[in-house]
Amino acid sequence: MPDTALVALFTGASTAIAAVLGVGSQLLGEGRRALHELERVRDARDAERQAEREERLRRGTDRMRAAVLRLAVTVRVCADIRRDQHARLHERDLVDMLGQARDHYYRANVRIEALRTLVSGSPEALAAIEELLSAVTEAYDHVRSASSTQTDPERVEKRIRSELRRVSEMVLAE
Fold first, then answer.
1. Is 153 within 8 Å of 36 (Cβ atoms)?
2. Exposed (0-12), middle (13-18) or buried (19+): which is 38, by Cβ within 10 Å?
3. Are 79 and 148 in contact (CB under 8 A)?
4. Which end of the chain has fewer CB atoms < 10 Å from its terminal CB, N or C?
5. pTM of this prediction?
6. Burial class (CB in 10 A: 0-12, 13-18, 19+), 163
């Protein structure tokens, strides 16, 4: 075989091998780039979901806090009216305030249960929510009972606020 034919054969084979290696390298590069893009999109989606979840938790906590504080203030006013008859402005003050306390108790329970559904399995946060629910129920029971004149309204309100802070810290730390 003549030398030129061997050189042409060698050159052609080298070119074909280089083309195959180039295409393979390009395919590997595209594959890596696609994987990196997929990871970036997945990470962005996870970050977005996490941000949405945190926002839902923050909103749920804020709504629950507002409802519980409304109840705490109403309970305090009812207890003050029961303890000191001079705190009344009108004969129906206590009856009206007890009706508000009932409404606020219901709203607080709804908000607490809504927050419980948002909290995902953190035993500490769920335990804190249970304690808050217990404090809210105890406060409402005190204000509802006719013998609640012996109960210190400040102590009841402090317990609610303490449990409320604990729930807020646990839920938002999650």
1. no
2. exposed
3. yes
4. N
5. 0.73
6. buried
- pLDDT tens string for the chain (174 positions)? 677 777 777 788 888 888 888 888 888 888 888 889 999 999 999 999 989 988 998 999 999 999 999 999 888 888 877 777 666 666 667 788 888 999 999 999 999 999 998 887 788 888 999 999 999 998 888 888 765 555 677 888 888 989 999 998 888 876
Burial 109-139 (b: 16+ CB within 10 A, else e): bebbeebbebbeeeeebbebbeebbebbeeb
Rg of the chain over Cα atoms, rounded to whole angstroms, equals 34
Place of tokens 């013998």: 147
